[in-house]
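Entry — protein

Goal — fold tokens:
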Amino acid sequence: MTRRGFVALALLLAFSTLAPASGAGDPYEINAILPETGRGAFMGRGFAATLGVIEDIVNKSGGIRGRPIKFVIADGQSNPQIVVQLLDGLIARNVPVIIGPNQTAECRAAQPLVRNGPVIYCLSPQISPEVGSFAFSAGVTTLTSIEGLLQYFRARGWTKVGVIASTDATGQEAEAEIDRAFAAEPGETIVDREHFNPDDISVAAQMSHLAGSGAQVMLAWTTGTPFATLLRGAIQAGIDIPIAGSNGNLSYSQLESVKAYVPKDLLFIGIPSAASVDGLSGGPLKNAQRLYINAFRAAGIRPEIGQYQIWDLAWIIIDALKKVGLNANAVQIRDYIANLRGWVGVHGTYDFRAFPGRGLGSSSLVVARWDAAKDSWTNVSLPGGVPVK
């Protein structure tokens, strides 16, 4: 978000108690395909709540060009087949832009369908959209996330790593990126590699192997209920080493559900402003975080992964519509986003020319540690993965 954008959003928040403009016509609908049910529902609830907050802010400040907006959410049910059916219906209606879907398999299934539009802004960081395509991806790449974790591991002296990943599309894609990251970091070694089905209720055999591998740290790549299965299995196997996972588990309700199995060091990839605004230097990033926190405080929501993963991209789409107009087609919206530079949000400063398809690089990630006693996470690295001294 540019400095001008900060002023605009600040005014939106400041005047959020004003009544919406009347006589502006029917709301402009922005469609989203999100997981309201199924395995990804714990994230979908946060996504939906965030869109509600943004919709309220925009409409109470007069909407876009005087017209109110409405986010229309379709439940993808955490199922790629359902997502494809919903996407086909929206394509038939010639909608220009869609927020979502969420999971890697869903995004991969959606990409071939939008070669000629609409724009889809996928919430999974694990896809790598083709340059010039109508697909965009939220957050930094999985490869960049793994590289950040390995830098943190190396600095902490953890060179022997045990890896366990799910056998679904998310796990398979992550494992390919894990291999790429380790190939570029010869100082780090995978001493044991395990797999499990996300529907498994026990990983006792896998954890037994990991326990005897000599691993100094475990990289556990999955989200939701399967992540709880891994943590429980590790405790039951007597494993007492740091465990690192993806930011898809940075959910208070998710971590509350696994509090009996939290290891001494439970690490995640986060974003510089996710843990606390107090640790940030002044400037646009801190301003963006203040606006973000104030918006959710006013709504009575404690922001987590479901909030910060979708917050920036929703505002980018709104800014695109403000710039090119509510009659914009998919090409105009794609071109606006693809050329956006210097836009500052809670993830950092976006540059879609330098980082096509997502706008973010390694400076937009940190390693975060979960503090069960404080019911919060703390950033334990600088941007990029270098440990905080």
Summary: The radius of gyration is 21 Å. The chain has twelve helices and 14 strands.
